[in-house]
Design goal:
By secondary structure, this protein is α/β, with parallel strands linked by helices. The protein has 11 helices and 10 strands. It starts with 6 loop residues before the first strand and ends with a helix.
Amino acid sequence: MKLTNNIGVIVDSFGIGVREGLKKAKEVGADGVQIYAVSGEMDPAALSVAARRELKEYIASLGLEISALCGDLGGHGFQDKTANPAKVEKSKRILDLAMDLGTNIVTTHIGIVPDDRQGEVYHSLQTACEELGQYAKGMGAYFAIETGPERAAHLKSFLDTLSTNGVSVNFDPANMVMVTGDDPVQGVHILRDYIVHTHVKDGIRYKEVDPREVYGALGYEPMDHGKIAQMVSSGEVFKEVPLGEGKVPFDAYFAALQEIGYKGYLTIEREVGQQPEIDIRAAVQFIRRYK
């Protein structure tokens, strides 16, 4: 097996701001970057047409491209129909920004897909994703749901109810290993028609956990990245670890991505750890061993 995929890095994983993070991504050997675009300096509302053009040119001057933007709005995802109109609009603006910056992918969490297909929460998710999917499809783009909150087969059954593939998948094998205990290799084959972006991350699961305790749900605390970071670093239930030290079977996982013909980015995400740059640099080298 010889991987030909480009290697990406989530700029925010460095924890040093966007511009410095972009330079650091180039320094560690990445081909591209993913950037959070929800608030602060990357909020779509904060970036004029000229600022977008300048940022795109700056990224290109570093010899990088954008693999995706992260448009994860947190909270209850799209489970709460009263909050959805504003969240759908914000998501569309993030996709507009992505297109202006040269990528057609925005990754997101939509909230856990419930088992009850007739319930209000399922309907709320479906309605929001249908609108987002049609908007994305209209411009040849994708909103990519991150794997982890539910098992791959259940996510596929939900995606199959939508009229387009404008809502697709950002495949994260570590989330599956840590939270649902799902098999990421099997998951690649199940979701093969929807995978448009991937995260490269590793983790260990120590005991079973209700995904709603991690990712939030109506009736539970809303999803909070700070809380998740604390959970993955504490090691009480699961733990995110450097690549190769966890339970993601990378040989088989990368082989599965090749088997389905995945040509997109392998984007390194490091949500925890005291020395992100060292871990990310090592992760780039880890992936390079497969090239």
